[in-house]
Amino acid sequence: MFYNKTKKTAICRLKTAENVYNNLAKDANDTAMELYQTRKSAALAIDRIEKYINSLANTPKEFIKEISEVKVSIKEFNEAVRIEKQNNSDNIKGATIATGGTVAGGLIASLGPTAAMAIATTFGTASTGTAIASLSGAAATNAALAWLGGGTLVAGGGGMAAGNAFLALAGPVGWSIAGALALGGGIFAAYKNKKAAEEAQKIAIEIENHISKLRPKFNKLKHLNTETTKLKSALDISLMVNTYPKDYLMFSQEQKETLAALINNARSMGKLINERVS
Length: 278
Prior knowledge:
Elements: H1 4-55, H2 61-73, H3 75-89, H4 102-109, H5 113-123, H6 137-146, H7 165-170, H8 193-232, H9 238-243, H10 253-274
Helix pairs in contact: 1-2, 1-5, 1-8, 1-10, 2-10, 3-5, 3-6, 5-6, 8-10
């Protein structure tokens, strides 16, 4: 049959591209979630450092000032964590989102607040443009998803254009590609061989373009996750709390240098928490 071999070759290419994309997207999504959890742990460590410094007698004022500045710098991240906790406790899986297709909107919403915030704080813009800290429930989730940098999530707003970071990491490639990827049947079964080959080829090329855009993002994400995890281990104050004097004036020179290094590490962590993958 005319174009039968061409059709099979095109569909094979499409299947391969889809598998590569979905595996890469899953790895990236898992890494983004891991990074988010590490960042939350680091934010708590910074809280403990602040309390420890404030508990010391005769703490240098510059230390108090520096750790306070770090807390201010990660305020937006802490707001995201607060919204995640609130929405999880309310058992809210997401807002009603119109993205040009009810199926896509439902799938995005089903991710839940933790995944949404993990992706938002990894790939989102520096600011929501909305005071999300004052929102709650579905409105907060909707605002958080808007944080992804795509703009408004109303129909026609273009907030979830195919191929953006959120859809690239949210799940199967079919969520972000117009039309169903009914491999081995469905839309391709309804087409004659030539038309099916053209359509499969067209979608395969689109997916391959997504792969080429996602791969460098994933590499940067892995590096960011590694650096954050490594620095997080340097924020442990257990030894200081349990063995150091309660008065800074009684610190040895080595202890003073260790505390100063801790402050520097907290400052560096503040920058890492705010770093986005673009």
